Task: inverse folding
């Protein structure tokens, strides 16, 4: 197989990629990880390359070995321009990732407001629940910090029909989570009691009238104005101005350090992004939010050893958090530490015994250890108790491996 196209796309050589396609190189050829040229363009947030490939017929829905498609990848990483462009090419709007989430869930979790808006307008179901038992609204509350950005995401989800009464696997609603953390503004939002500040400016931003919003905001004399200004500058790709305005309140409000980290991530300035996360963490080392999002970023960078260390710190405070255990197990699997991944999944199963996701991933780690019989017995027992398609599909795959 020729991988010239994939290399050209990865290197950002758009004319070379166009020439190769003209020569008849298949647009959807895949590498050893199942990644197509379009997936590589999306991962690089290369809008022009992605548009070229889409125009040449690239399939948005082909999945790589992690079950991620270009459509899902764009949503999970907040690449809103690619996501918007993709809508013209028939993506599977309701497709889900390996966690059972649509593009709306990771974008709500990670604070990608513009991506959330695009997903909602495209018709992605607002109350879809993933394999962790959470909707997009629950992700924004449980994994958010109740600050300006996450309140905007929560507000947008509620406006589009998100159900605040949905209960997770622990029987808790989003409001229960917010109240347990003392997040008064989020609690008011979920109860429909919050008065929205700067409503006109938020409407201008949603309609992409960023320059007009900037003029109305003036110099960012309050923290909320500063947040909105920085957000406008970021969407205009005027990153240095965004960093400067966020710096204004960075020492007083740690969430502005998070905003700065996100800008550095967009600029692919890894060292500086990690430094901003660390500054935010140091303001309150026991607070989960900044450490959790730093660990997400570390996984995206392929820095799984460091991601596991951060997850262990989080688990030392909340040892029964099955989502932390799940993320830790995925990093351990990537590192080839399959026995430890099995142990992490055992802890997740104990914390959330009714969730089939953890049994499935434990079985997959056992397969990687070539302990096929143990994996088979685990899946057969689980399938008797819960006829989940996930179990049945994995059972068939394990049986095929054993018969080879």
Result:
């Amino acid at each position: 197989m020729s991988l010239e196209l994939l290399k050209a796309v990865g290197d950002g050589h758009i004319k070379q990629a166009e020439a190769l396609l003209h020569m008849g190189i298949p647009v959807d050829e895949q590498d050893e990880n199942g990644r197509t040229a379009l997936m590589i363009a999306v991962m690089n947030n290369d809008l022009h390359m992605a548009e070229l490939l889409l125009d040449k017929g690239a399939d948005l829905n082909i999945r790589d070995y992690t079950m991620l498609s270009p459509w899902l990848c764009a949503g999970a990483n907040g690449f809103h321009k690619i996501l918007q462009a993709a809508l013209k090419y028939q993506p599977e709007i309701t497709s889900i990732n390996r966690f059972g989430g649509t593009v709306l869930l990771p974008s709500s979790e990670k604070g990608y407001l513009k991506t959330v808006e695009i997903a909602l307008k495209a018709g992605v179901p607002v109350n879809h629940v993933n394999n962790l038992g959470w909707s997009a609204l629950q992700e924004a509350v449980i994994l958010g910090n109740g600050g300006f950005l996450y309140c905007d995401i929560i507000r947008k989800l509620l406006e589009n029909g998100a159900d605040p009464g949905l209960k997770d696997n622990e029987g808790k609603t989003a409001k229960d989570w917010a109240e347990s953390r003392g997040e008064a503004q989020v609690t008011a939002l979920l109860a429909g009691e919050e008065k929205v500040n700067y409503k006109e400016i938020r409407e201008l931003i949603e309609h992409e009238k960023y320059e007009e919003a900037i003029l109305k905001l003036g110099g960012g004399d309050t923290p909320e104005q500063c947040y909105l200004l920085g957000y406008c500058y970021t969407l205009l790709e005027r990153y240095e101005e965004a960093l400067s305005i966020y710096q204004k309140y960075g020492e007083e409000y740690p969430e502005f350090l998070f905003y700065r980290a996100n800008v550095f991530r967009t600029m692919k300035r890894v060292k500086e992004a990690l430094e901003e996360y660390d500054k935010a963490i140091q303001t309150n080392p026991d607070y989960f939010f900044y450490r959790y999002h730093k660990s997400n970023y570390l996984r995206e960078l392929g820095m799984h050893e460091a991601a596991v260390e951060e997850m262990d710190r989080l688990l030392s405070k909340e040892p029964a958090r099955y989502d932390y255990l799940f993320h830790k197990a995925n990093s351990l699997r990537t590192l080839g530490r399959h026995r430890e991944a099995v142990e992490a999944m055992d802890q997740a199963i104990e914390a959330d015994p009714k969730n089939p996701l953890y049994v499935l991933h434990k079985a997959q780690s056992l397969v990687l250890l070539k302990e096929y019989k143990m994996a088979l017995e685990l899946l057969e027992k689980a399938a008797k108790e819960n006829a989940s398609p996930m179990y049945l599909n994995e059972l068939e795959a394990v049986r095929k491996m054993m018969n080879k």
User: Anything to note?
Assistant: DSSP finds 25 helices and no strands in the chain. The CA atoms of residues 28 and 36 lie 5 Å apart.
